[in-house]
Amino acid sequence: MAQKKHTLNPDKWVQQHADYLFNYTIGRINNHDLAKDLVQETFFAGLKAMDNFQGLASERTWLISILKRKIIDYYRKINSIKGKAEVKMNFYSDGEREGEWIEERAPANWNNETDKNIENKELNLVLEKCIGNLPEKYEMVFRMKTIQQFETEEICKELDITSSNLWVIIHRARTQLRKCMEDNWFKN
User: Closest Cα to residue 174, out of 143, 152, 142?
Assistant: First the structure.
C-alpha cells in the first residue's frame, strides 16, 4: 500500500495552524509577543522552504519542525548575547571538597505530595513566576530540558555547552526553584 503524500496549502496556514503553533510556542517561550513573532517567522520560513517539502509528513508536523528550529535559534541567540560565565554559588570551588554542596546552600527536602499539587492553578502560577525569576540561562536550559524535553545532546550542541555544564545548570535551576517555591508557596 502506497503512503499518502501530504500537500501544502499556505493560504490556510493561519486559519488551520496558527493557534496550535502559538500554544506550542507559548509553552516553551512564555512570552506572548515573542511567541507570535516565532509563529510568523515559521510561516515565512515555510513559504521559503516549500520546494523542500516532500509530503512524507503532515503540513502541521512539517511546520512544527520548522518552529522547533526557530525556538532553538531563539535560545541560541540569547545564549550568545548573554555571556557564558557561570557563578559557582552553591558548590565548593577548590580543595578536596570541590564540586560538593556548600552545606548551608543545600536544598531542603520537599514532601512527595508536591507532585500531586502541580495540577493546582495557583501552584502553577507561582511555579511559572519562579521559573521566570531564574537567571536567563538557567531558565532557558531548564525549559528546554524539563518542559520541552529536548535531548541533552541537542541542547548542548545548540547552546555550545558541555553535558556536565548542562546538568550543573539544571541542578542549580532546580535548587533555586525549590527555594522560590518554599518561600512563595509552602510557607503560605
Answer: 142
